[in-house]
Amino acid sequence: MRRAALFGFVLFAAAAVHAATGNPLEAAFAAQGWQAEGTDDLSASLRRIDGPQGKAICLDFDFNGVSGGATVQKALPIDWPANFMLSFDVRGSMPANDLQVKLLDASGDNVWWYRREALVPSTTWQSIDISRSQVEFAWGPSADRTLRHTAALAFTVYAGHGGKGELCLDNLRLRALPPEAKNAAPPPATPNALLEQRAKQVARGLYPRGFSGEQSYWTLVGTDGGAAHSALMSEDGAVEVRRGGWSIEPMIFDGRHVIDWASSNVTQSLLDGYLPMPTVRWQSGELLLDTTLIAAGDGDLLLRYVLSNTGALPRTVTLALLQRPFQVNPPTQFLNTAGGVSPIRELSWNGQRVQVNGDLQVVPLQPGASFVASTDKDGALPERLWRGERPAASTLHDDSGLAQGALLYTIILPPHGQRVIGVAVPASTRSLMPPADPAAWLQHQQDDVAAHWRESLNRVTLALPASQQAIADTARSALAHILMSRDGPALQPGTRSYGRSWVRDGAMMTEGLLRSGHGDVAAQFVHWYAPYQFRSGKVPCCVDARGSDPVPENDSHGELIFAVGELWRYRRDRAELEALWPHVERAVAYMDTLR
Asked: In what order do the strands lie in the sheet with 501-502?
């Protein structure tokens, strides 16, 4: 009865204001019915203040070191025009957190939303305008995702940097707009959309496979525990130098003929069949290019390019190692770490190294490289190189973030000869002096890294028939991925879209680590994760830099208990079990409350 009366009051207030002003939402903040709530262990409360347009509301919140969201919500039926502008005024004080405006249907299961990331509100009132095109269907079972009518409105401050603060809201208004014209095709809305459009207009291979609408596969390359600085290598030989970073991509120019991933027969391999040291081979007639990526112990990336001539005649070609504003993580990936473009705005060349965005460097290990670069307005660099242009530059700036550079090597290959070219991407901006014998130095580095991984991945032996060797190799490669994907003690199921820790995945990886001779790594994870348990005893489904995630996944509590049990079963460390036992008791007690 109370909810029905409240709902009727909201309808009455909205109708009365509509009759007086023509804006059916103007009284929304003045009317009663708003409720504040926070997710697990998060404090949220509501205050009323005098705003510039009458009564306003303020959401006070404290994340208390966890993730999740603070929300104010009320029943507010709205019939949505085909095109509209939804506006409201905000002020407040808080660290950069995400603002989510949610529109819920009568069931509450179907939700449309607008998201504004990293909002830092001003202490004075400012207006936020939301167009129809900015409202997306978020989730729900409905097959019809067209926004027509919603029954409730919610404003959520979702953890970006967390912390505590206030967000005040006033002057909610909805304005119907003329229907959008659909005659002319709209311009690309994002850099990814722009480049996907361009990739369709040029020869296949001048853009990465992901921008050409094709499935893109890749492998992870990094150091044990170094997920934050891990690289990706695509199936076609491009290397993303850091999470979300730009890439280095090879191309060969043989006169006016371009040899790239699309014009070659491409194969992939791992050293010894299982070590996380991948090689991609291009074969184009009698010309071979082997690209190998190595992550050294200090986090440096080493790229070795071996160009071979299998023919009976000499060959003269140009090897281009392009710095391109693309991740290997393709544009189809959007969750947590959006794939596709990674802006390059600054390039500089001092004759010894290329510096990108004033940060990471690409250091040629052999002398004789020249450098070319191009802004986006001058055209894609591979196309210019194909036309025979060589746009030399020592510095270059491009506001669009689509600048590209390339190290060029003119290589004379004798019959049945080969040439080794190496570049390094140091983990920091420190100087790296090219070695006297780059080929021998690269081989020595590879041998050292391989020896480390062989020791780490062969503590347990799988004795299988030769015909089943692939099973043992796959198990060892998977173990390497567990170790490379972890960020310090935090085990992660991935390092891009899933670059956060789930207790479910962590429990399974914990058992795998224990069985594979890495009990210390397994224990580090469990001891790190357990303190993120909520005060209620609820075990968070996942944890990231924002803290414990409150989304209920009710296997989480048992997963933590399982991981603690596996530590005891393999390690028999009573002191360790006693330290973790309070978390087990609280998880069991929480599961009892669920029942």
From this structure: 501-502, 542-544, 547-548
| Spatial distance between the Cα atoms of 66 and 492, rounded to a whole number of angstroms | 18
C-alpha span between 320 and 412 (Å, rounded): 14
Residue at 158: amino acid letter: Y
* Long-range contacts of residues 268-274, Cβ cutoff 8 Å, at least 24 apart: 268/219, 268/235, 270/473, 270/477, 271/446, 271/450, 272/450, 272/454, 273/469, 273/473, 274/457, 274/472, 274/473, 274/474, 274/476, 274/477, 274/480
Residue 416's φ and ψ, nearest 5 degrees, are: 55, 30
- 409, pLDDT greater than 90: yes
Question: What amino acid is encoded at 263 in this protein?
Answer: S
Which tokens go with 268? 């992939």
Q: Which amino acid does the sequence have at 194? A: L
Q: Ramachandran region of residue 68, left (φ > 0), alpha (ψ -120 to 50) or beta?
A: left
pLDDT confidence of residue 263: 95
Nearest-angstrom CA–CA distance, 495 and 501: 10
Mean of the pLDDT values across residues 532-537?
A: 97
Is 0.90 topped by the overall pTM?
A: no
Determine the Cα–Cα distance for residues 126 and 117; give it in Å rounded to an integer: 16
CB count in 10 Å sphere of residue 268? 16
DSSP bridge partners of 262: none
Selection from 29, 36, 35 nearest residue 14 by Cα: 29
Q: Identify which of 173, 175, 176 has the alpha carbon closest to the alpha carbon of residue 26.
A: 173
| Closest C-alpha to 452, from 483, 425, 491 | 483
- Residue 183 pLDDT: 62
Q: How large is the angle between the packed helices 438-457 and 469-485, nearest 10 degrees?
A: 100
Average pLDDT, the chain: 92
> Any residues with CB less than 8 A from the CB of 356 and at least 6 apart, and which?
246, 323, 344, 346, 347, 362, 405
SS3 for 440-472, per residue? HHHHHHHHHHHHHHHHHHCCCCCCCCHHHHHHH
Pairing of strands 43-51, 54-62: antiparallel
Q: Among all chains, which residue has been given the structure tokens 């060969």?
A: 252
Strand 111-119 to 149-158 pairing: unpaired
pLDDT mean over 223-239: 94
Cβ atoms 246, 325 nearer than 8 A: yes
